[in-house]
Amino acid sequence: MKRYIFSFVLVFSGVAFSQSVTLVGQITPPHGTTGGVSYAGCLGYTAPDGREYAILGTATGCSIIDITNAASPVEIGHIPGATSLWKEVKSYDRYAYVVSDVNGSQGLQIINLANLPTSVSLDTTIMSLGGFSIAQSHTISIHDGYLYLNGTGSGMIIASLANPRRPQYLG
């Protein structure tokens, strides 16, 4: 991914300090706030065609933003989700995986990125794997084709992504 610093206008205090950082572009998608916070969790994604995207957890879901031209970012789509201060986002193949630690209302959202740069769509929301609830997850990791969900209320859940649209419970 290009070495751009991209601001999503995160405001935590009245004064922000930066050293050797240049604002290239910004966007403020209108997707609400929770407790005064609008965004949580961000992932860089490069599509097979070389275009670059920011996949950004928002207070009310997940936003996919084309940052190929960092000076003029464009929101491609917003997938509604649980209203929460906490979102985690990872990608595998042509899918984004989104979780939140909101008790019982988010699940594992699988977002189809295959139609970028035109559109994105929610492929499915999974609320349980192997009979265990994943309605809430604090963190998500993906490594070598395996999905790891932590803080589910059912402990750690591991799933295979051999079929990225339908994770298979392993333990």
Question: Explain this structure to me?
Answer:
The chain has no helices and 14 strands. The protein is an all-beta fold. Strands 1-2-3-4 form a four-stranded antiparallel β-sheet, with no helix packed on it. The protein has a four-stranded antiparallel β-sheet with strand order 5-6-7-8, with no helix packed on it. Strand 1 (39-46) and strand 2 (52-58) form a beta hairpin.
Please outline the helices and strands.
Layout: E1 39-46, E2 52-58, E3 61-66, E4 74-80, E5 87-92, E6 95-100, E7 108-112, E8 121-126, E9 128-129, E10 132-133, E11 139-143, E12 146-150, E13 157-160, E14 168-169
Antiparallel strand pairs: 1-2, 2-3, 3-4, 5-6, 6-7, 7-8, 9-10, 11-12, 12-13, 13-14
Alpha-beta content class: mainly beta
Distance between the termini: 34 Å
Poorly predicted parts:
1-15
Strand content: 35-45%
Q: Count every beta strand, where a strand is a DSSP E run of 2 or more residues.
A: 14
Report the helical percentage: under 10%
Mean of pLDDT:
87
Query: What's the helix count?
Result: 0
Quaternary organisation of the protein chains = single chain
**Which geometry do the CA atoms define?**
globular
Largest sheet strand order: 1-2-3-4
The main β sheet shows up as:
4 strands, antiparallel
User: What string gives the helices and strands in order?
Assistant: EEEEEEEEEEEEEE
Radius of gyration: 16 Å
